[in-house]
Amino acid sequence: MSFFNKFLFLWSHYSYAPDQYKEYINRLFINNLSTLREISKIVAIVIICFTAFPIFYEKDYINALFYLLFAVIALVLSYYTNYKMQTTVVSNRFIYIFITLFYVNIMSFGIYLNIFSVQERPASVFFSFLICALLMFVNPPQFNLALTLSAMIVFIITSLCFKENSDAAVYDIICTVLAGIISLYFTWQITKLRFGLEISTTILEEERNKYLDQSTIDELTKLKNRRDFMHTFQRYLTNYRSFDNWLCIAICDIDFFKNYNDHYGHPMGDACLRSVAGVLNSLMDILGVYAARVGGEEFALLWFEKDVSHVDEVLTYISKSIRELEIPHEKSKVSQYVSISIGVYIEHCGVSSETKILYDLADKALYAAKGSGRNCAVVTGNGIEQYKIPRNV
Q1: Cβ contact 318:253 at 8 Å
Q2: Is the backbone of residue 14 left (phi > 0), alpha (psi -120 to 50) or beta?
Q3: What is the pTM of this model?
Q4: Using CA atoms, how far apart are residues 183 and 185, in angstroms rounded to an integer?
Q5: Per-residue pLDDT tens for 138-189?
């Protein structure tokens, strides 16, 4: 690769690999919308401040009217961008168009300010303003180059055609070229730094999520672990929807699991746990039931109910789904297949905040289910008389 091609590659991709560049430029480019919304407001305020000069010092109300026109255009861009952000998914084409319109408005204001309004006013004022505006956006380098060169060419041609003082026109050309070089250099550098920051943030976020998963997910079953369950339980006690009337906590235990392990071996026991966990893990999508592994063969469930009578349907669905796995269990005294016992405690939402007390009450219901023959569910709760859902329901 020649030096020129290498330079072009590094410049056009901000020194990153093409795939990496494409991923992060798309991620950062969407942020231009919020920047455009805010910077347009600032531009409008600044231009309005400029109207003080022709009104109070020059008594030139025509100039003030033109200034206000540019301010109004900036405000319209700001409010329309805000409207589009709230109502639709905005495409990259829309962002390109509106950045261009913003740029054209600034360029037109600068041309009017430095050439038509007061010819003696130096062009450096306009280009300082223009450079600051460009630095606010994260654009592909080709787009920045096109905008900058367009502004330079239009400004130079307009200055040569309409400025009466040739020395002032030469000064404008020098300022324009310098401003263009500074703009391209600093926008490239700042965008590259933003790329690096975004990549670093993404890597740190991925690492954080990785360690968070390791600390909250049970490695064998991929269910949430006891630590996550206790945090979630506390959150469920205090955060519930207005139409949720009951909080349900269930403790599940695989029937005669020790016998299963002793007969089939620990590898088969692990496979059994994974299969049961797969059923419980699917409950969130189907019934909105949170599931976690809190012990060896013990699982905990949490969910909200509007009508307490629906609890029976949830428990029946769970028991039926476990039975339909048809995992043979020759050493079970209650079923030829793997089955579970469930203890449930139901509490009015917002009544109690004691996780340990509620957990122990659900655990007692589980012992009642085991004591009444296993492969069943026992339900109790605040103001609810204890009852059993038998295995054949």
Answers
A1: no
A2: left
A3: 0.55
A4: 6
A5: 888 889 889 888 888 888 888 888 777 777 777 778 878 888 888 888 888 8
> Are 178 and 1 spatial neighbours (Cβ–Cβ below 8 Å)?
no
* Residues annotated as part of the active site: 297
What's the order of all strands across the beta sheet hosting 340-348? 290-293, 298-305, 246-254, 340-348, 377-381, 384-389
Alpha-helical regions (H) of 51-122 = 52, 61-87, 92-111
Secondary structure string (H, E, C) spanning 330-392: CCCCCCCECCEEEEEEEEECCCCCCHHHHHHHHHHHHHHHHHCCCCCEEEEECCEEEEEECCC
> How far is Cα 70 from Cα 44, in angstroms, rounded to an integer?
7
> In 3D, which of 171, 147, 143 has the Cα closest to residue 159?
171
Domain ranges of the chain: 3-209, 226-389
Point out which residues pair with 264 in neighbouring strands. none
CATH class of 226-389: alpha beta
HSE, side-chain direction, 13 A CA sphere, residue 372: 21
